[in-house]
Write a structure and sequence with these properties.
magnesium ion binding; 40% helix; 3-stranded mixed β-sheet; Dna Ligase, domain 1; alpha+beta; disordered C terminus; cytoplasm; MutS, DNA mismatch repair protein, domain I
């Protein structure tokens, strides 16, 4: 979807159409969760500090996020996907991989399917979507960003290698800003440069990810679309209008975050063994504290107890806190967990 959160806000409030909109944060505090294309022209983007966004775009309009509304629209979009194929792997509320090799409408052209889906989304929601069409996940994902907003890009099998070789290294999906800068120091600026490196060299300098880089530089990505992808963590966080400085303030703010995580865990019929506490200080530095226990937990009481322990260990933060987050990982589905624990008693 194109600037999904911001586009939903502009759809629901026509007064915002054509104006620079930031979802999340405020003019003084917080972080931008999403920015409209009008805001992006000023260099405003997601994860940018709100105060910096306001400096870059003085007329920026800040809107509080409405995640329940975004989920509602997301469900509409996912249902449209499933009209064409059951092989849908959501990446987030507004993005998914679809395998349409075999599809419910027996359409032989993946390009035609993408066009139809985009038209269906527009008709059902009033929102625009962009699509990338290719023969593997890496290229399809990369293609989806080429003609945004409201566009489509296709990379045919015979075009794949030439496309990759000219692709700037920072445009490779899965290569972040830090890794891209490290590669540039080694003289790797595009796909052709990446392809010139041996698997041994890539592994030596980039660890396990090196083999993945070696393969995608050659257009090789055999990952299947996984409609039942295993969730790795469940979490929640909050950025505060005013920094928190005392233990009492931190505990009061931490409690509803733990409750949200417990509610989401219950809804997902999950449980986990690792609780992590995320602390963002007033100077924007981030610290994470984690603890793993011997049994699966999911209740508020268990999550809260570990969160409090992490907050106090090794000590209560001395610097003011602007953001707190809690996540539960090492997850196991309820049915799997109970299946493992089943025991049968036999009479002799």
């Amino acid at each position: 979807m194109d600037a999904f959160y911001a586009s939903v806000e502009q759809l629901d409030n026509p007064e915002l159409k054509g104006k620079p909109v930031a979802v999340g944060g405020s003019r003084e505090r917080g972080v931008v969760a999403a920015a409209s294309y009008e805001a992006r022209q000023f260099g405003v983007h997601s994860a940018l500090a709100s105060i910096m966004a306001a400096r870059r775009c003085p007329n920026l309009i800040f809107v509080k996020p409405r995640f329940e509304r975004y989920k509602e629209v997301s469900l509409q979009i996912m249902e449209i996907f499933k009209n064409y194929t059951d092989l849908v792997e959501p990446l987030s509320l507004d993005e998914a991989y679809l395998d349409v090799t075999e599809n419910k409408k027996n359409i032989v052209s993946a390009m035609k399917i993408a066009m139809n889906i985009r038209a269906d989304i527009l008709a059902a929601t009033g929102l625009t979507a962009s699509a990338g069409v290719s023969y593997n996940k890496f290229l399809a994902k990369t293609a989806s960003d080429i003609n945004k907003p409201d566009g489509m890009s296709v990379i045919l099998p015979e075009e794949g290698q030439a496309f990759i070789e000219q692709l700037k290294i920072e445009k490779f999906h899965g290569i972040g800003k830090v890794t891209a800068e490290k590669m540039k120091k080694f003289g790797v600026f595009n796909g052709a440069d990446l392809k010139s490196k041996s698997s041994e060299w890539l592994h030596r300098n980039f660890g396990k990810a090196g083999l993945h880089y070696y393969r995608i530089a050659r257009g090789i990505d055999e990952r299947e679309v996984q409609p039942n992808r295993v969730r790795k963590s469940i979490g929640a966080e909050n950025t505060f209008e005013n920094d928190l400085e005392t233990e009492q303030e931190l505990l009061k703010a931490l409690q509803p975050i733990c409750q949200t995580v417990a509610n989401r865990t219950k809804k997902a019929k999950n449980a986990g063994k690792t609780v992590s506490l995320k602390l963002k200080y007033d100077d924007f530095t981030i610290q994470t504290r984690s603890k793993t226990v011997g049994s699966y937990i999911s209740s508020f009481n268990h999550i809260w107890a570990l969160a409090v322990e992490l907050l106090r260990t090794p000590e209560i933060p001395e610097k003011p806190i602007r953001l707190l987050g809690i996540s539960l990982s090492n997850l196991e589905k309820e049915e799997v967990r109970y299946g493992i624990q089943l025991r049968f008693e036999y009479e002799e």
